[in-house]
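Re: that chain you flagged

S.,

Sorry for the slow reply, it's been a week of failed gels. I finally had a moment to sit down with the sequence you sent. For the record, here it is as I used it:
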Amino acid sequence: MKVTGLILAGGLGRRMGGRDKGLQHFRGKPMVAWSIERLAPQVDALLVNANQNLEHYEAFGYPVVPDRIAGFAGPLAGLHTGLLACETPLLVTAPCDSPFFPEDLVARLRTGAGRGRRGSGRGETGDQPHPVFSWCAARCWMASQPFSKAVAARSTPGMRPSRWPKCPSPMNGLSPTSTRWMN
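Prediction finished late last night. Pasting the structure tokens below so you have them in one place:
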């Protein structure tokens, strides 16, 4: 089944002094370039969710989709936008600021989602959830109008992933090395 990848780069970059995280250089190239290099070979289509500096993100050669919910509502708004823009049956997300996520992330998430048989899930290592690494059926309830209204009503700038709805099938043990998930 075909999968679309979504790089989440739509935040305000508060932890980086308001600088656009995805465009900050790490080891000689923008952070988003690392995520694109990791995720693009694993998916059939790739989107980048960004809300500022769109022309810089477009230069990477992939469609850029800004949040459809205004006000920098956080990665949940990016997930929502990705689900609405997705043209494949499945969507997998990864943040722009985790350059070392597994090169087989999609296979791991696919395996975990298949075990859960619920069509969605998130990455976890031990007790640590990584909701910005997620797997969703594009027809998922998250793309629905009621979900849009709920996110908009609850959203505040920087809505934290820990407040995301619980995914029905978390995938435990995606990586034995926690540094793969560092950002």
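What I noticed first: The chain has one domain: 3-181.

Talk soon,
D.
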